[in-house]
User: What shape does this take?
Amino acid sequence: MDKSCINVGILGWGTVGTGVSKILVNQNNLISKNNNIQLNLKKVVKRTLPATREGIDLPTDCLSTDPNEVVDDPEIDIVVELIGGVTDAYSLIKRSIQNGKHIVTANKALLAEHGSDLFQLAQKNSVSLNFEASTAGGIPIIKTLQESFTANQIQSVCGIVNGTCNYILTEMSEADVEYTDVLSDAQEKGYAEADPTMDVEGIDAAQKLTLLIALAYGVNVPVDQFHVEGITEISQTEIQYAKELGYVIKLLAIAKLTDDNRVEARVHPTLLPERSLLANVGGPFNAVCVIGSAVGPTLFYGQGAGEMPTASAVVADIIDAAKSIQSGVSSPISQAWLDKSHTEMSVCAIEDIVTRYYLRFVVIDRPGVLASIGSILGNCNISIASVIQKEPHCTETVSLMMLTHKAREKDMQAALKQIYTLEVVKGDAKLIRIEEEVAF
Ligand SMILES: NC(=O)c1ccc[n+]([C@@H]2O[C@H](COP(=O)([O-])OP(=O)(O)OC[C@H]3O[C@@H](n4cnc5c(N)ncnc54)[C@H](OP(=O)(O)O)[C@@H]3O)[C@@H](O)[C@H]2O)c1
Assistant: This one.
């Protein structure tokens, strides 16, 4: 279709919506010059008005509280959904697609739950559905997996994809403070929401992993079908012991292809060797490491959230959609969402993964304790790589740390069950999985 000016409507004028409106209005000439397209921001919708934003002047008639003024306006070509949440976003996007509009969204929660329906609907209506900003904010990882690595069998995709958790873990490591204190500080600085549950429990990272897996392996794996563990149980004790052992703790989202052609999917705190590149991704930054059969290891680093980095990705998607409109060719859509029978690949249960482990037991300081624990581990096919025991300080208990060689999770859980029956072992062990191969 030859359209000299493409009209854009934005649903949501919060953090990201504001950044997008700034780029569309203030950088309009640059976008036009670089891409040979003319974008016009026709309408911006939010729940309450009046509203102003520093750094951007929108005419009053550009603002509305009625989403129908975007969704049902025949002149609007591209709908940019930035309201967040699932229910309203789902119905507004569905209606927009049915009205023939191209969609851009940053909403990982929506796509993790309804990606299949929405992509099928988009294909049926010959419109594009672009979602670069939904994972790792300003880092162009979606496009990279979808386009640049399309000639590769992806061996693994692992990343630090939640800036809140990375900020908290970095502060705990550098400033020697406990989790709850850093969380309050992160909330004050705007790195954590008032209700941080989605971030600190690992759910946000898991939703992003679902999207990465769909692109890397063509499988649609809902969040409730893999192991998700947040950072709330990480204490200063673990941070310090990890340091002594030469490791750093990060919340990683991990997807790997197994030898028997299954997909390993998990989100949990992970020990990374302190010299690895991923271990040195600090503060609210994100990084995603992709290992491809042809390209080998690659690492993408940048700001995973925030007004302008996220807006950068959203506007790139708007420009792609505008080019699709002009050329009449829609952007590619991942097979994972279009055809559930597309792949035979299944997900590897957490019990079947093979990895190294950090374990910390609190035990009574008595002869034979190490031998008892070591014997149970050995009988369960788990070999100890190193052991550290701290001298007791005014208590009869001591911390006993172990790093294991690679072991199967099922064996580890069976061993722990037996170890907990030992009268000398107090409480449950702290278990943190170690990753070395994905972290280069
Ligand atoms: N913030 C980030 O750094 C970031 C990074 C990556 C992805 N994302 C994703 O981007 C999306 C937007 O995030 P955000 O941080 O910009 O959110 P936000 O600051 O909370 O802004 C949401 C905006 O949507 C409007 N809104 C909410 N429900 C609405 C409805 N039913 N009808 C009309 N307007 C509605 C709100 O209106 P009012 O202003 O009137 O309340 C507000 O303007 C989310 O999906 C988020 O996961 C955000």
Summary: The radius of gyration is 24 Å.
